[in-house]
Write a structure and sequence with these properties.
The structure holds two protein chains of two kinds. Chain A is mainly alpha-helical. Chain A has two domains: 3-170, no CATH class; 174-240, no CATH class. Chain A is built from ten helices and two strands, in the order H-H-H-H-H-H-H-E-E-H-H-H. Chain A has a two-stranded antiparallel ribbon with strand order 1-2. The radius of gyration of chain A is 26 Å and the shape is elongated. Chain B folds into two domains: 5-217, no CATH class; 219-273, no CATH class. In chain B, helix 7 (121-143) packs antiparallel against helix 9 (158-187). Classes of the chains: A mainly alpha, B mainly alpha. The interface between A and B is large, with 110 and 105 residues.
Chain lengths: 249, 282
């Protein structure tokens, strides 16, 4: 998957470190093992192996293919897990949430802000991680999975949770059109949407979100199946008059 | 709204750059150009209606706010959402005479985008499958020690896969979009059951996007509290997103401090009485 990207990253380093063709071939073969992780956070792994490769070129006998590939195989799983939930699952949605807020009404400001902030963050973040990996070797991982990392992760996850809640309330809106009108009256005696909102504003939206979460997290349904289920729900809902987008030409 | 071949071709190029096994790189290609919000900016600029582009992009961004592709399995394809879905939705809105700012407009955009995005997974697997060919060449190169060729395998050959699976489908679908939308309009009247369902689906789909995010951070019921805290801030108290983020940052700081303090204490306790093994495994 990312094996060739890895080989291309390592080639200039290996080319510099070794002079004979055999040594280069041996080292390149080390990195031809399967590799796949979260690419942004994964730069730390490339940094670590760059450091190890340098040590091997300088004559450390205790670094062999197994050390390097054991480390790579051992790290790509956890780094992918942390990266997917932290970078893709939290940092990007927070940035996008703020950017969408700035783009209300069609202003390009939010989109431009996202492009600038995210790319600076990714560029400097990846550079930092690569060099941390190179300097500290295995110790760099302690920063990510050790106490400081855990505290940082937990606080960022909470931040993410709150911002996602705010994003959901600002941008998602599930509304029912269900009303009951007594015979002869002009106004309905039951307007379900305002009744629900008087209990907790946005309750219906929140229920739908929690429902989708439950289907995916607890029932292990794929997002596509959940989407298809929502099509059925929408159809039935429109049919019985629970949903009515109130369209007209 | 008519789209020229040139406009369609430019969008096709952006589709090449932004897809997941993409050509613009992960950070800039997939996570910048591939995001529907940025796609909305690009489509708006190319099609000459910046405001509609951004509004449609925002509407679709919510559905795909947490597009994580664990291990290369995808539920939607960003190049299809951003560079086929957004232009088609913009054409559809123009054709139906809906304002992209209205709730109906947003719902229509979301439905269109998600349909295209789901169908677009074909493009993802198509590109990935064709890239196996270049991998094969790559392995040969490693075997023969011809490492310079790896640059071509990594950066040049995939363009061929992308011209077939990103550039051409995007260009053709965007160009043919206007007559297609007109056809749909004649066959499916706005007040019919099909259209109402389509719009309702559009308002329900963002729930899936938010739920995918929640899946990342909620494992037990108590983890829902931060989410509902944020929801309450915005829905009940009417605080906007940037302000909510500031409030959230305050809580994040408190948690960080508390957590560090408890680590320090447990570390100190361990020195006094040697207890271990009840540390949490990560």
């Amino acid at each position: 998957m990312q094996t060739f990207g890895y080989l291309v990253s390592m080639f200039p380093i290996i080319d510099e470190l070794y002079s004979t063709k055999e040594e280069k071939a041996r080292s390149m073969n080390t990195y031809s093992a399967f590799f796949n992780t979260e690419p942004q956070l994964g730069s730390v792994i490339v940094g670590i192996t760059a450091g190890l490769e340098e040590a091997r070129a300088n004559g450390s006998d205790d670094i062999d293919d197994e050390t390097i590939n054991g480390l790579r195989a051992g790290l790509m799983g956890p780094i992918a897990g942390i990266g997917d939930s932290l970078v893709v699952g939290t940092v990007i949605p927070i940035l996008l949430g703020i950017a969408m807020g700035m783009s209300t009404g069609g202003s390009p400001l939010g989109a431009i802000m996202y492009i600038v902030v995210w790319n600076l963050f990714a560029y400097f973040g990846m550079k930092f991680l690569f060099f941390k990996g190179y300097e500290l070797g295995g110790k760099a991982i302690d920063f990510l999975v050790g106490p400081t990392g855990e505290a940082l992760r937990e606080s960022i996850t909470t931040l993410g949770g709150i911002v996602i809640g705010a994003v959901a309330a600002s941008w998602v809106s599930v509304k029912t059109a269900f009303t009951m009108t007594a015979a002869g009256a002009d106004k309905p005696f039951l307007d379900l949407q305002s009744t629900i909102d008087s209990v907790y504003p946005g309750l219906l939206t929140a229920l739908f979100i929690v429902g989708c979460w439950w289907l995916m997290a607890k029932k292990k349904m794929s997002p596509i199946k959940v989407m298809l289920l929502l099509v059925v729900v929408a159809f039935v809902g429109v049919f019985i008059g629970f949903f009515n987008p109130g369209l007209q030409y | 709204m008519t789209v020229s071949w040139l406009q369609a071709a430019i969008l096709g190029l952006f589709a090449c750059l932004s897809s997941m096994p993409g050509l613009g790189g992960t950070s800039f290609g997939n996570y910048t150009l591939g995001r529907p919000l940025v796609g909305g900016l690009v489509c708006g600029l190319v099609l000459g209606d910046l405001q509609s582009g951004i509004l449609v992009g925002v509407a679709m961004q919510i559905v795909y706010i947490a597009l994580v592709t664990p291990g290369g399995t995808v539920s939607a394809d960003v190049r299809a959402v951003s560079y086929i879905g957004i232009p088609l939705a913009m054409i559809a809105l123009k054709s139906y005479g809906l304002s992209p700012e209205s709730a109906d407009g947003q719902a229509l955009a979301t439905s269109f985008g998600s349909m295209v995005g789901t169908v677009g997974t074909v493009l993802f697997y198509g590109t990935a499958t064709m890239n196996l060919l270049w991998q094969h060449i790559g392995w040969k190169a490693v075997e023969n020690g011809n490492y310079k060729q790896l640059y071509a395998v990594d950066m040049i050959y995939p363009w061929i896969s992308h011209i077939i699976f990103s550039f051409l489908p995007t260009m053709i679908m965007v160009k043919m979009g206007a007559p297609m939308v007109d056809m749909i309009k004649t066959y499916l009247p706005m007040d019919g059951l099909a259209m109402k369902t389509l719009f309702t689906v559009g308002s329900l789909l963002p729930c899936v996007g938010i739920a995918i995010l929640l899946k990342q951070i909620v494992t037990k019921a108590i983890d829902f509290i931060p989410f509902f805290f944020g929801f309450t801030l915005a829905a009940s108290m009417g605080i906007n997103l940037v302000a909510s983020t500031v409030v959230a940052a305050m809580f994040a700081m408190l948690i960080y401090r508390l957590k560090m303090l408890s680590f320090k204490q447990s570390a100190a306790a361990e020195v006094d009485v040697i207890i271990d093994d009840d540390e949490e495994d990560i």
